[in-house]
Amino acid sequence: MKLGKAFADNVSFVTGSSGRMSREGGNAWWLGSGRALLFVSVFFIAFAVLVWRLFTLTVIHGHTYRALANTNKTRELVRHAPRGILTDRTGKPLVANIPQYRLIKPCEGTDVMVSCVTRLTKDEGESLAQHGLPLGWYLEVDYLRQYLYPEAFAHIVGYVGELTEEEMQDEYYQLRNYRSGDRIGRTGAEAVFEDRLRGRDGKELVEVDANGKILRVLGKDDEVTGETILLPLDIGIGMAAYRAFPQGQKGAIIVTKPLTGEILTLYSSPSYQPNKFSLGMSDTEYAGLLEDADRPLFNRAVGGTYPPGSTFKIVTALAGLEEKAVTKDTVVNDIGVITIGPFTFPNWYFTQYGRTEGLVSIVRAIARSNDIFFYKVGEWLGIDKLAKWAHIAGVGSSLGIEIGGEASGLMPGPKWKDQTFHTAQDLLARNNQWYLGDTYHVAIGQGYLLTTPLQVNAWTNIIANSGYLCRPTITKSVLPGYAQKNCKNIGIQKETIQIITEGMRLACAPGGTGWPLFGFTVTKKTLPQTGETEWALSPTPVQARKTHIPVACKTGTAEFGDPNDKTHAWFTAFAPIASDYIQDEENSEQDTESGEPEISVTVLVEGAGEGSNVAAPIAKSILEEWFSR
Q: In CATH, what is the architecture of 74-230?
């Protein structure tokens, strides 16, 4: 069919062979325009990147991301170990652990993945857990320390405090696996026995959901509770001391077992609340403690230094007898006052009452605290020998108690420059000269002499235990031979002990200076012979009988340069007295308890007056508590 010239070319193109069409005008889709080629190239590159990324995620780094995924659904929590319990000598707890929580959450204001610790009470933690925790927040069970007899035992039990950021950087704490938020013993027994009290933390592996809620426990390593420490302290004695000490006064009480040096109580007044450190206090409260003029944090019992007054006459008598400067038969005529040039050295009895005591032996001099006799003993001894025996008795050096802050005191003399002292500046001004009057003052416990209440108690124990200087300790003796390890025989003759003991016994008998302890008796309650169990089940009344307890004591009234002439009140004593030393027992109608001394008590009340009037009644309350049991 012939269509004409108008369609000739077009018809020819359309009806051409397929080969020609392919070759001249029919390119393949992948060989099309430039935009199509670009699209194809990008598609293949992106696909290759995705394939490579998938390979690296699943094959090359698969183990890493699997561990991260597991971490997101599991959490390792610390199971904090309860701190060990401190008990008194009978096993009664002095402290308790209060359950609480540590809230672990990301620190605010930082891009670094660091956790911060906030302490919550048990109720706060449980309430927060019930309402759900934000992502990344976790709760760990922990404990707070509570002190059951806070003020009475504050200075010997001590307290715990949280580690600071600076301490956490210390290698010592890092090597021992301490964590942020951990508390350590800061003072007292809490610090001394830190390693035994701390225990060992455990671990708990838990599974959590996307919100951080614990779904189940996958495994755990139990914590190990800290060790229970049996201390030699006695709660009854400690509370008796605390109640007997006059409110508002400063001072200290030391009560020990003379044969071992074990401390039954140690009280420093004013005291403080250790629970404030453990349970929390404001910055204002803490600043108030540090700025308090009465220094409640200061342990006067071991760190305070004072002139010991007439309690030091025990040491002067010891030195005089051992150096044979005096004997039991030596007598001195009390003329009321000794005059050396422009200086006078009176006896207290003459100063207060204008009376003298005539011929005085060493036994009567101890009982009556006669200054004239001990002036002469100091003169006959010389300061060198007196200082020698004072050092042997523990004066001028630390005794080695475990708790910190112990002071050495000061035993002055011609060779004082060989020691490190920070007082007696007028000695420097006198170019290290020493006068007889200086010796007189030291011989009666005055002048430049400074001791701690702990040292006064230690030399009291030397007489009580027949010549042993014991290290004061808060470690309970549980093994045989402990006393031999903790006490050193200083080589005193038995006759010396007998003479001084007799003088101290008469000091607490009518005619002596320790009048509150005259005829000291207690009412002892005893059970019928049927035995305690049978008695408890029967209506038989408790049998009671007054018992006389012979006490050896020494009073002390020490001047300390107060502008108002105030004096420190001292009293130190031990009981009972061994039967070998008891003479002329006057009370046959009462039982008398004798034997090895069980307890020694030393009391200091700063600036309070005479030892017999102020300190002795405190000691009496403590002795009543002990011997009425």
A: Alpha-Beta Complex (3.90)
Looking at the chain, the domain(s) classified CATH 3.40.710.10 span: 235-627
Query: What would the pLDDT profile of 446-463 be if each residue is shown by its tens digit?
Result: 999 999 999 999 999 999
CB 473 within 8 A of CB 257: no
Name the residue type at position 359: L
Q: Are strands 202-208 and 214-221 parallel, antiparallel or unpaired?
A: antiparallel
Helix (H/G/I), strand (E/B), else coil: 133? coil
The amino acid present at 234, given as its one-letter code, is D
Q: 183: closest CA among 288, 100, 273, 254? A: 100
Query: Radius of gyration of the chain from Cα atoms?
Result: 41
What strands lie across the sheet with 74-79, from one edge to the other? 74-79, 202-208, 214-221
As a whole number of angstroms, the distance between CA 556 and CA 558 comes to 6
Q: What are the residues whose beta carbons fall under 8 Å from the beta carbon of 504, sequence distance 6 or more?
A: 314, 366, 367, 463, 552, 553, 554, 573
* pTM score of the predicted model: 0.81
Nearest to 231 by CA among 394, 401, 405: 401
Residue 126: both structure tokens together: 């449980």
Closest CA to 413 of 403, 402, 421, 405: 421
Distance separating alpha carbons of residues 364 and 277, to the nearest angstrom: 50
Distance CA 160, CA 155 (A): 12
Of the pLDDT bands very low, low, confident and very high (cuts 50, 70, 90), residue 421 is very low
Beta strands 229-230 and 86-87 are parallel
Q: CB–CB of 417/434 below 8 Å? A: no
- Sort 364 into a burial class: Cβ within 10 Å, 0-12 / 13-18 / 19+: buried
Architecture of the domain defined by 235-627: 3-Layer(aba) Sandwich (3.40)
CB 548 within 8 A of CB 519: yes
pLDDT, one tens digit per residue, over 353-406 is 999 999 999 999 999 999 999 999 999 999 999 999 999 999 999 999 999 999
Tell me if 462 sits within 8 A of 551, measured CB to CB: no
